[in-house]
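BUG: 3D viewer hangs when loading the predicted structure for this chain

Environment: internal workstation, default settings.
Expected: structure renders.
Actual: progress bar stalls at 90%.

Input used:
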Amino acid sequence: MGSWGTLGPALLSLAGVALGAGGSLFGQYLVSQASTRQLELQESAAHRAELKEAVLKFLSIASQVEKALTRSDDGGTAADAELGQIVDELWLVQAEIDLAARSEPMRGAAYRYAFRLAEAARGEIADASALRGPQVQFMDAAYGDMWSGQRRSAGDDTTR
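Structure tokens produced before the viewer hung:
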């Protein structure tokens, strides 16, 4: 075996190479973790945008149904035909939400709200206040699906 004078620099060089390789591997690990997190954030933002668009479309058509309900009380078959067409659109948008939603509570709340609106359109519900419960559940489910894991602030309370 050689003396420390010849073996020392070789061992130090070998230790430097091992530390360099370990540092490089650790750096690659950190970069891959950051890339994964960034991809998750982008996918989450894309999901929120897609679901938000479907929810806004659904709410717009739900509002049209409610307005048509008040007109159909005054009008005749023309208002009923228009209401039937709007309810058909409502079911199509509900299907969009069904496809875009990540959670079953969101899908269920959208279905229940659409179902109650359809019942009202058929004249099976006389009191419009019966729509408020499913509407609130729908909005809560939409918030939960778009912002899962985040609580609403006190100013966003829907129990008023």
